[in-house]
Amino acid sequence: MKATLSDGTVLEGQPSEIVEAIRELAAKNIGGNGSRLLHPQAQPAVSAVWTEARVQTLWNFLYGRQKELVRFLVKQGGKATIQEVMTELNLKKATEVAGLRSCITRNARRETGNKRAALIAWERDPKGNWHYRIAPEILGYLKKLV
What is the Cα–Cα distance from 80 to 74, expressed in whole angstroms? Predict the structure, then answer.
């Protein structure tokens, strides 16, 4: 099995080995090249093991605007600002986007059995701008479905 970190580092091994390595890196909050993975408040579910079957099941649970949000992020290469999302989905308040993300996160946690699982992370780019992002390892699976 392979897992790709947000900084592009690829981990290879048994699922339990990958989970342990990701947990250790997350505890230090660094990627394989020494860079910070995410803002501390935006840490994704590092111990959730996403498989194609789990992503497929999660996708099947999503509906309406939840699917629209995921579809838009996939179309954007996995990343978009809140303003881009609000414009695309014709939303008036940022809390509407947060509500959609909350529903998606709840389903991700149910599907993976991991209380920290998240399909969509909220993070800051190197320029300091905040955006929503789908992790590369999940994005690959979603591109096949959307």
Answer: 9
Residue whose C-alpha is closest to residue 77's, from 14, 140, 4: 140
Q: Which CATH architecture describes the domain 40-145?
A: Orthogonal Bundle (1.10)
Q: Tens of pLDDT along 33-67?
A: 554 554 444 444 443 578 899 999 999 999 999 99
CA distance 104 to 12: 28
Instruction: Enter the pTM of the model.
Output: 0.67
Interval 62-73: pLDDT, tens: 999 999 999 999
Long-range contacts of 75-79 (CB under 8 A, 24+ apart): 75/146, 77/139, 78/133, 78/134, 78/135, 78/136, 78/139, 79/131, 79/132, 79/133, 79/134
